[in-house]
Amino acid sequence: MIYDELTEIAEEEFFDVVLQTQIIAGKLRLHIVDGSYLDIWFSMKIEGRFAYHWERRMINGSVYRYDNRPHENLRNMKSFPKHFHDGSDKEIRESEFGEDPKEILRAFLQIVRAKIREDN
User: Fold this and answer.
1) Which regions of 1-120 does DSSP assign to beta strands (E)?
2) How far apart are CA 83 and CA 20, in angstroms?
3) How large a percentage of the chain has pLDDT more than 70?
4) For residue 1, pLDDT beyond 80
5) Cβ atoms within 10 A of the Cβ of 120, count?
6) Is the bond leading into 81 cis (omega within 30 degrees of zero)?
């Protein structure tokens, strides 16, 4: 399963920011060194639906999410339905991530790493 491959990437390539990994409620959760977490979810009901969600609201009020939920108000984006929530649910921009879940995770964890370094 894809979660096993993503776990391996998180633990081996991003050990400096990922403390622990676990599968809960059908998603992969990565526990991050700052006390936040990154959830990675692939729908079992809707083929191709996914979300990479970094929850930091309890730390500094921010949330980062890459997903492909087809919001009607985003129809004009070139990357629709894919989009990136950049720090909040309201700050949304076009997707700059690729198609491969492993490469998406690597790119997303690079953002996590950079933001944590920025905060320290």
Assistant:
1) 18-24, 27-32, 37-42, 50-56, 62-67, 83-87, 92-94
2) 27
3) 100
4) no
5) 7
6) yes
Predicted TM-score (pTM) of this structure: 0.93
In whole angstroms, give the CA distance from residue 111 to residue 82.
Answer: 17
The structure tokens listed for 1 are 């399963």
- Say which amino acid occupies 67: D
Query: What are the strands of the beta sheet with 62-67, ordered from one edge?
Result: 18-24, 27-32, 37-42, 50-56, 62-67, 83-87, 92-94
Considering Cα of 66, then 71, then 76, then 78, what sign does the dihedral take?
Answer: positive
Sequence ranges of the domains in the chain: 2-119
| pLDDT at 90 (0 to 100) | 93
Scan for tokens 């492993």, then name that residue.
Answer: 102
CB atoms within 10 A of CB 25: 7
The one-letter amino acid code at 60 reads N
CA trace torsion 36, 11, 21, 98 (10° rounding): 70
